[in-house]
## 1
Amino acid sequence: MGQTCEVIVDIAHANVDRLYSYIVPDGMLVFVGSHVLVPFGSGNRQREGFVIRVMEAVEPTADHDENQPSPVALKPLLRVIEPYPILTPEQIELAYWMQKSYYCLLVDALRLMIPAQLRGSKVKERIDKTIQLAKPEEIEDQLHSLLDKSGKPRSPKQYEVLETLKACGLEMTVSDVLAYVPESRSAISALVKRGYMVEGGHVTFRRPNISALLPDKQVTLNDAQKSAVDAITRAMEAKSGTLLLHGVTGSGKTEVYMHAIEHCLAAGRQAIMLVPEISLTPQTVGLFQERFSDGIAVLHSRLSAGERFDEWRRIRLGKARVAVGARSAVFAPMQNVGLIIVDEEHEGSYQSETVPRYGALDVASYRAKQFGAPMLLGSATPSLLSYYRARSGRYQLLELPGRVQNRPLPVVEIIDMRQEFQAGNNGIFSGKLAQYLSECLKNSQQAMLFINRRGYSTFVSCRNCGHVVQCDDCDISMTHHKGENRLRCHFCGAVKPLPTVCPACGKPFIKYFGIGTEQVEEALHDLFPSAVTLRMDTDTIRTKDTMQQMLGTFARGEAQFLVGTQMIAKGHDFPNVTLVGVVAADSTLMIPDYRSTERTFQLLTQVAGRAGRDESPGRVVIQTYSPAHPAIRYAREHDYKSFYAYELEQRKKAVFPPFSLFVRILFSSDNETTLHAEVTAYAEQLKLALDERLGKEGERDILLYSASPAPIKRKQRAYRYQILIKLLRTARLSSAIQTIYTFAGDHRNELFAMVEVNPQDML
Ligand code: ADP
Ligand code: ZN
């Protein structure tokens, strides 16, 4: 008797998120991880599925267990979709772990591990069609047979194609032949029909167009870099450990990563390197491409469907041994991982904001353990949590205390914008910044200006009554986009015409406040009409190539100024940038979140790090209304350790993470009245469940338990309420989280609740 197998069907629904048994028809090659087509449900609809287990079927015995369905009742698989298993055993194991840890559907976890386009066969591998001579030894006779009595070819195209192949002597792709002999498609078919040529084909991989902006420098590691690489190599030999590489901006962390990867490859193993989506610039990727050539595969959101599919397959088929990518690259289908690197480990984008809401660092840590590989976290501004773990010995701390070649860190000047105002300057640039910008131009150097808002003005309000123009569907002020000449909601994209009178009081005293990238660009143009300014934000970077083009333009020195949002804060290494300006440092401080100090410090440090990365020293100007704020003061001193000590103390006092953990359950509905009532009832029941599970002792673990409207109460027409729970980190923490997830799962059908552990934003 043949095999049976267990399949999870590719339908994201709790009711069918389990294994179904099928018979493997004789002669069908099925493996764990195979992508298969199965008949499903009473109507036997064709569905895709993933094979999770393969079993040798047992002969039915006379006294077989009544409770077991007899194998005869099973349906057979219809077919196998790809010839190789698309999931590895480790990925399946990981999916089970995610199902348990994030309380998600198994199929949702599995879907993360394969390119979306593979499901439903939306992309196919690309085959380059080729032709070659069928009988090269008869070529002269064949050519002769194409001539008429007068010695002229009867079909000139056929003759030409045959001659081309003769001259080449090898197999040629059809597209090459068409380039030599235009419009020869039917001639080619005719020659194949005659039996003069045979067709063939090769699978080709569509690769993203990567080119390094700057040539790869061969550098000799300095002592600090060397000892970091040694420590990583030792951890690779020991097959375990988490290391935190703390190095100031420009200290050569990327070189450390690349050397560590070289050691990993030399040991015959593979490496995964995660970088934030935002710093997956052509620059970073190009550097890795230069160093590891086609040994790398790149995974990020700006790839075309075909490229993504092919990069994934190059990894799966073992052609690429280094995967470089954003968050989701942590699922790269590798089978022999020797090192996982997470660059800029403090970045919020490592936390997924869509179901399943996984943390890429947690997944990386699990995968590293699976393979016996160390995990290397790196940052100039480690997250408080990671640094805390390094200090308490859970992670091994590696430090690169200075910039390479003893280059100085840039001098940071803080400008108090209140004083500027009192001195009569109400422009965007302080006197100092304007002066430095002009010096920069004079010296043929470049400057970057950072502002974390796009658009022209960030809110529009009435001077008479104070009314702020909001989106009709969201609780958020609308941004003025001067280029489009209208207002736009940054949540839902809704637009409104510019108001001429106040929509509330009807008076014509409309005023625009708050600076965005467009306004900075305009101010630069007014001040320096002859200089070229580039603006980089999500409005100007629409396609996958525009970012590369713009960075290329800047790298070649064809523009003097680069204005941008977060997009310009990270990863860029432009040797000629000697001035960095932070136009308004306060906007991130204002965000009501316990992490806003930490985030502002990180952002300022990163932005400042773009200056003076080459021989010429750098200068940084931070404009702010709160010059005394610790985030700004410590960033000026480039003093991570003092910042850490200060901020940890604050967190300890308020029992904020890392001493506690937030869980937020978000609800949304169009009807506020019922939502309010339902969330209140939900909160009461959940509290009972928690009390029961945690017991008397656990009561003190719950530091905060509130049910209320979310800070942004309305988003895209829906009302939003939340239950916010702050839990002390004790041994009972995971039971508490389990209880919350289980409760949400059990009440899934009554009210849509989204559970977020350690949410990245609490708005
Ligand atoms: P980080 O990632 O820490 O900000 P990078 O790795 O980008 O720093 O290094 C900054 C610059 O210094 C890069 O241009 C890099 O090529 C160069 N660099 C790195 N290590 C060395 C070294 N040992 N000697 C000389 N230049 C180096
Ligand atoms: Zn809106």
Note: The mean pLDDT is 88.
## 2
Amino acid sequence: MAVAQEQTLRENPYPDGFRHNWTKREILEFFDLPLMELLFQAQTLHRQYFDPNKIQLSQLCSIKTGGCPEDCKYCPQSSRYQTDVEAGRLMAVEQVLEGARNAKLNGATRYCMGAAWRSPKGRDMDTVCEMIEGVKSLGLESCMTLGMLDAGQAAQLKQAGLDYYNHNIDSSPEYYREIITTRSYEDRLETLENVSAAGINICSGGIVGMGESRADRAGMLQTLANLPTHPGSVPINMLVQVEGTPLFGAGQMDPFDFIRTIAVARLLMPASYVRLSAGREAMNDEMQALCFFAGANSIFYGEKLLTTANPMQNTDLELFARLGMTPEGQ
Ligand code: SAM
Ligand code: DTB
Ligand code: SF4
């Protein structure tokens, strides 16, 4: 962290009005509340910042699929594991924009472009910048997730008009080591710092259901909430178990513990969009409704995530209608 920023935070730890000094114990106390109490507190705070009946829709596009050199144990796109994912090349700009136009027609307000890279190569930067410019010109918010970024790359993306950069911390600092060895937790935080310094909004969250403990979930949310600025978007993914990945066959988690994680994210980061992200295919309508009550107010919309299935658009629209919810911007 820059010295000036560190000093400002010492003098006034909450310049944005939010706490950034949560202890693990305080967070675990939230997790340990009776579920109804936790849900009530989260929904009460949620209503101070958001319309509880609105939901933000983001659509994903895998602009470069598979063949990734990293070893993230959950990921079907790592070249280290035998999965059904076929490695492809970086998509053409026009094809990506075709997807963006469809996303807009379908009611999404943000288009999230993901690449299975450790970090972008210099030769790809012009192409991804063109994608950002194209998406912006459609009147959509743009988001990219391309792996680690240095300060120069972050500045280039900002220059092209990028609104959000997604880079997940994935788990607690302690559990992270069990999941990924090819890049460190500190590398992740450094990328987030570079993104923030470039003036791009951060989208950062993680995955629940990888065999981590409640203390690990608390540690993950502690890292996010104690960043100098809360991420504008916090995707909470429930592990999608993909055959061939090391985490395939990991035990199923208690759905209530997933809902608790959403509620605690809402309590720690009151004004951030908390996204109910991967894993909705394995959730029933009642579970999703409880996630919305706990404070989730964004989803990935469209029948595919990056390589795995997501609910059909009609299924989601029917659910919103049954819950009396409407997509943001409509
Ligand atoms: N390669 C880039 C990176 O890892 O930074 C960007 C794409 S990567 C697929 C984006 C995020 O998707 C990961 O950090 C992880 O949180 C999430 N993800 C990947 N596979 C998943 C799975 N099987 N279940 C749930 N979330 C997953
Ligand atoms: C995020 O947190 N989840 C999205 C997005 N950011 C890039 C990705 C989920 C991927 C799920 C597995 C797949 O479809 O490959
Ligand atoms: Fe590569 Fe990202 Fe998958 Fe990790 S999560 S293997 S970095 S695509």
Note: Residues 122-137 form the longest helix (16 residues).
